[in-house]
C-alpha cells in the first residue's frame, strides 16, 4: 500500500557538501606558479599549510622530482597498455623495491588505493565468504564491496573499534560462511586514531575463519620499519591471514598504491584477474620513476631520520595544544589533530577566520564524521616549521572563541556534541533578554486556547488529543510504548509567541523509512531479538502524530534567535537523555532558508513519506464530487469504488463495543504486518481502548453485505476542534482488501464523512500519495532534519538494502 522513497545517503552528502562549499570551506582552488609544501596560495594569499597528507614532505624531494622527469624523458608521459599484456620497463624495479620494504612479501602495484580495493576485494572474497566492516573504514573499501552483494556475500557492520560487537558478528556468521573478512583502516583519517591491531590478531587466532584486511594509506611511510606503515609497525611480520593495502601517494610522495600479502597464490590471482588492474591503464612513467626514488629512501637509514623529524613536530604541536583550552578530541602520536567545533557553521566560520589570518587547514564534515562532530582536521608535516606551528596554535586559540561567539555556541556545547568532557567547559550563555523561554512537561500546564491557536490546529495533537496521548504513553510498560513529553513556548518582550512546539523521547525502529526489503530482513531478526536496530529518539512531535508540529512566526525579526534558543534547550535534553537521534520533522522540502539554517546547526535533511490533505469541499453530492476529479481519476473512481458500492456496507460509528474493538485491532495489526514501507512499532492496545468511547474519535467501518457481514475495513478518525478530520489509523482484511478495493473505499468515505460534518480539511497523513491524489487530495512533499550520535545506523542499514 505505502510506496515511499528511501533515504539515499548520497543525496544527503551532496546537500551537506553544497552548504560547506557555499560557505567557502570546501572545493577551493590553489593558485600561484609553484608550491613548496610549507605554504599554499589560495585567491592570491599565501597560507601556511596545515592540511596536507604528505606528512614526510617527500612530494617536494628533489630526488623524486628527478625520478619523475627522467622517466618521462626516457619513456614518455604515459605507457598506454594494460599490465595484463606488458608492464612498463620500470615496474619490475618498483615491485622489487616495494617487496623489500615489506620483508620480501608479495606485492601488486595499483593505479591508486580506490582501484586497488576494487581489484583486490572481489578477487580475494569468494562466494560463501562473509564481510564485517568497521563503520569508519574508508569509503573506497565500502565502495569496492558493493558488487559482492550481487554474489549474495553477507555484509555486516560494527561500531568503530568495538571488538565485542565484532565477536558477536563472528558468531553469527561462522556457521554460514567459509572465511569471514574484517575490514578496517590501520590509521583513521579524521581523528588520527588506530585500529586495535594486536587485539584483532588475537581474535583471528581464536576464530579460524577470521581474516583481516587493512587499508593503511594514512599510516604509510611516517611509521614502521622501512616506512612500511602503522600496521606493520605493530605486526613486524605479515601473517598469512592478513592483506594490506597501502599507498605510494600521500606520505610516500609519488602516485599509486600497493597490495601486500604473504600468499603468492593471492598475488597471482589478483594480477591475473583483478578487475580494474586487468583492464585499466597502468601508472604513468613519471609516477613509477618518483615511486622508485621514494622506495630507495624508504630502504635507507634516512627514512628513520625523516620519521624522527616529523615526530618532533608532532610532539611540539601536542605540547602547544596542551597549553590551550582548545578541544582536542583524540590524543595520540599521529600527525592528525582534530579540534572539535560541533556545529558545521562554527567550523565554516573558523576556517574562514584562519584563512584571513594566513593559515589553511581542513574541515572534517559529514559523512566523514557525524554532522554535529564537525571540526578542524589539522595535519602536521615536515614542511611545518616550529614557528609556523607555534603561530598557528596562537592564532587558533584567539580565533576559536570568536567563531564560537559568532555562531551562538560555546565550549560546553562542543563538549556535549562529542559526548565527552573537554578541558575548558563553561556554562551555557544566558538567554537573550529579548526572548523568554517557557518549558513544560505536560500539555495540561498550557492554556488550551494558547496551544490550539498555534500548534494544535493540526491533526490529533490538539490540546485534548495530547492530554490523551500523555495519559496512555506516560504509563505504558513496554519500552517501545513509553514516551516522555516536553513542551516549549518562546515569546518576545511583548509576550508575543514566536515559537511553540513539543518533543517526545522514545524508542524508534531505525528502519522506519528504509526500503521495505530492508525491514523484511530486520523483522526476521526481531522475532528473536525484538529491539534489533532500534534507537532512542528525541523527536519533534511523536511517532503517533502526523502533521506540522512547529509553530514558527517567520515574519518576526527574532525567529532565528528563537530557533537558536530551542536548539540549545534540545541540546540540554540531549545531554540528559542521551538519545541516539534528534529529529526535527515535517518541514517543506523546498524551504531552502530552513535547510541552510539547520545544516549549519548540525542537522542533515532526510526525506519523509509524502503527506496528503483534502480541502476541496465545493460540491453538494457524489455527482458533483466526481466532477472535481481529473478525467482519469473519474474513470478510476467509477471502476474501483462505484463498481463495488452494492457489495459493501458502510457504517459511521461514534463508538464500538469490545468485540468490535478486538476485530478492528486485528485489522490494524494486519495492515501493520503487511505494510513495512513505513515500519513503526505497533501501537498499544490501550490507545484503541481509549478511542472506543472517546468523543473526539469515531469509526468508519466497512463490512461485506454477503455472505456473513464480515468486517473487512476500519478507519480510526479524530475530530479536531479546529475543523480538521484526521483518518489516523487504518485496518483491513487482506483476504478481501484487493478484491473490493477496501483501501480506496475507506479514503473516499473519509472525505464523504468529513463533508457531512462540515469540516474544512482532511489530513490524510503519510504514504500512499498516489491513491489519495486520485481522490482529489493534494500531495505535500515533507522532510525531516536529523542529528545522530554517529553514522553507524544509517550506514549499516545501507548494507541491508537489496534494491
Automatic annotation (TrEMBL):
This is Class-I/II aminotransferase. Its cofactor is pyridoxal 5'-phosphate. InterPro entries: Acyl_CoA_acyltransferase (IPR016181), Aminotransferase_I/II_large (IPR004839), AON_synthase_class-II (IPR050087), PyrdxlP-dep_Trfase (IPR015424), PyrdxlP-dep_Trfase_major (IPR015421), PyrdxlP-dep_Trfase_small (IPR015422). One of its GO terms (biological process) is biotin biosynthetic process. Transmembrane segments: none annotated. SUPFAM superfamilies: Acyl-CoA N-acyltransferases (Nat), PLP-dependent transferases. One of its GO terms (molecular function) is 8-amino-7-oxononanoate synthase activity. PANTHER family: 8-AMINO-7-OXONONANOATE SYNTHASE (PTHR13693:SF100), CLASS II AMINOTRANSFERASE/8-AMINO-7-OXONONANOATE SYNTHASE (PTHR13693). It comes from the Bacteria. It comes from Zunongwangia atlantica 22II14-10F7. Keywords: Aminotransferase, Pyridoxal phosphate, Transferase.
